[in-house]
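Hey everyone, long-time lurker, first post.

I ran two proteins through the pipeline my lab uses and got sequence/structure pairs for each. Pasting them in order. The first:
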Amino acid sequence: MKALVFLALLVLLPLPAGAELLGDASVPFSADRTVVVDGRSFAGRVYAVPGKQRHEQDIQGLKQVILLRSDGRGWLLVPNLKSYVEFGWAPVLAELGEESALGPAVGREKIAGVETTKYRVEHTARDGTEIDGWLWRTAEGIVMKLDGTVRPKRGKPTSVAMTLSNVKKAPQNASLFELPDGLVKLPTEALQPLLGGIAKSN
């Protein structure tokens, strides 16, 4: 379940409307996504339109879907179990979406054939979470790559890297970003077992 740590660490506190979602690009797109957490690599998919994201991951044969919106709301869906959990995401996710959280641009690089600008990131969120690393972003705001360390105020640091590939800029089906009918809502406390105990309830 640690494959979702970079999101689970952020699923803590609800945010006000108008929050800036990390990687909220100005164009709709889909892409393959590789996440490396403390040396372990996991593959998945991401779909995005302005203000909304869908992250898909298979963990030991169990499909998990995370829906995120720029108003601070999120949902963890487990289709095989016909259930979902609603949550609010933590300040660090919103703050990393703000220009002020990025350090100076240090150059331009191509990631998976896509031109990006590389930024230094050294940021302490208002909840005490520290981010130290690098971020590569396109002119449209697509975060093609990030690589660094996440250190919660109370907890051990976790190395996190993410890379996108096979990016396709195109309209996305609106249903991808909505809760499907027929799912049972679980209490927030269910985030802990579903995410391997990384997240904690509100």
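...and the second, right after it:
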Amino acid sequence: MCYSNSSTSSNETLGKIYQRSVQLLPPETPVFYASGFSFPRWRIITKSPTIHLMKWGLIPHWYHGNSPLDFASKTLNARVETLHEKASFKRLIATHRCVVPSSGFFEFKHVNAIKIPYFIYPKNPSIFSMAGLYDEWFNPETKEYQQCFTIITAAANPLMEEIHNSKKRMPLILPNRQVEQYLNGSDEIQHFSSIPSEEMSAHPVNKGIIFSEHANVPAVQHPIVNNIEGQTQLF
């Protein structure tokens, strides 16, 4: 699953890549590492001509419970195979699609009892376009409407099968040429395939930084020598 992400591109760069206005965005702060369980605000692409900020962790518009963050922690991801079965997602499939720009994401490889973190990033271009869904929920505490999103996951390609070898999942990463087609909503989401391994790179990173209180630093993405596997990079 995809629970840790990064977004280090400038607003200007995202605006050019996705042909969207960035006028509503605050000045960017590079995100080198963010856990979905901290429910960060993210720059999100929809059919709108403007890039919007949304919170990671989808709370459906109909939610009236007492534990919205607990609910959001369970909707950071959405499996593409079961979108039509889940009450939180099925109403959104046709009209509330979004793309989550990413500079790279983090996943763990299991080697016996040891978990080795990897940073997975695009070879070219510099952005992953992760397929997602979004909704708008009224927060009774703040008396404001809150836009929020989930990242869709699919079966892993060969690279991600090797890294995420416990669950063999990955974000549904769209080729940039398919972004507008996806957002248009006329094609079933299940018909979209994630980019191939050849368009992705990966290397092990420092677990100590990831589990520290100060993980959002450039060094969290830096490669380290993986003595367990005797290698520094896959593919």
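Reply from user beta_strand_b:
Welcome! Quick read of the second one: Residues 4-27+36-104+121-200 form a domain with the hypothetical protein yedk fold fold (CATH 3.90.1680.10). The chain has one domain: 4-27+36-104+121-200.
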